Amino acid sequence: MKRVIIDCDPGNGIPGANTDDGLALALALASPALSVELIATVAGNTPSDIGAQVTKDLLTRLGSAIPVVQGAAQALKEDHAPWRAALDNRVEQLDMVRLWQGVRAPKPMAADGYDAAEAIGRLICDNPGEITLV
Known about the structure:
By secondary structure, the chain is an alpha/beta fold.
């Protein structure tokens, strides 16, 4: 069984967010060939705190105790404000509000930690050659 860490920006249930990372998480969790040992969230299609909340909600509904650690809230060098403005308002801009009607929003849940880079590095260094970062 391949041991993996998944670093992602899931937005399932958040209007305007892509569902690709959530689908990838679900497929990885269902795979008998993978052992998901940590999920880290980073700012992307959704802010990292929302990604962590979405992930925790998904894992809770699945009865899974995989740790979720929140990562960077923005890029290291690039101003995040233009990206957030574009990404956070695209549902209204593209008149897609009706696509998200009736979709249950994730329950508010805190991440298990707030330094994804540290958690990823620690798990990989504690298990040399055994962990794959996805």
